[in-house]
Amino acid sequence: MTLLLLYAILSTAFWYLGSRAQITRAIWSRYPRWLARWADCPACTGFWYGAAAAIAIGWRENLSFMGLASDAIETPVIAGLCMIVCVPLLGGLMQRALWEAGSAIDVDPEREQSSQTDGES
User: Fold this and answer.
1) In whole angstroms, what is the distance from residue 11 CA to residue 28 CA?
2) CB 77 within 8 A of CB 48
3) 92, part of any domain
4) 90 is in which domain, residue-wise?
5) Residues 51 and 79 sit within 8 Å (Cβ to Cβ)
6) Which residue among 21, 33, 75, 79 sits deepest, i.e. has the most Cβ atoms within 10 Å of its Cβ?
7) pLDDT (0 to 100) of residue 114
């Protein structure tokens, strides 16, 4: 279960960095259209990032995934299939949290001031 969570967090982080994060905007804003569509899909990228994580971490560290041997050929496929579900869920949760956190950059001082004075009257 811990490895499933690790793969899900890593895959979601890679999806976010590859298609949404401001720090990597210089890279993902230059994607060709076909790659941008693929990178925007958390389920599509989740499969490949999950499979890559199972290969890079599972095979290298000899960690079994949900009872499957780390060196079994089906392990990366099963990990990828799990990430098709996990990455959109975690990505949606993360997007919601970022939306709720707001941004200091987009604050409109006039609107904020009027909302403060409305409460005083």
Assistant:
1) 16
2) no
3) yes
4) 2-103
5) yes
6) 79
7) 60
Q: How many CA atoms lie within 13 A of 106 on its CB side?
A: 4
Answer yes or no: are the C-beta atoms of 61 and 54 closer than 8 Å: no
Structural domains in the chain (count): 1
Q: What are the tens digits of pLDDT across the range 14-67?
A: 999 999 898 999 999 999 999 999 999 999 999 999 999 999 999 889 888 988
Residue entry with tokens 């994580």: 53
Please, what's the b/e burial string for 31-61 (b: 16 or more CB within 10 A of its CB; e: otherwise)?
Answer: eeeeeeeebeebebbbbbbbbbbbeebbeee
Q: Does residue 71 lie in a domain region?
A: yes
Q: Judging by beta carbons within 10 Å of its beta carbon (0-12, 13-18, 19+), is residue 13 exposed, middle or buried?
A: middle
H or E stretch including 33? helix 33-40
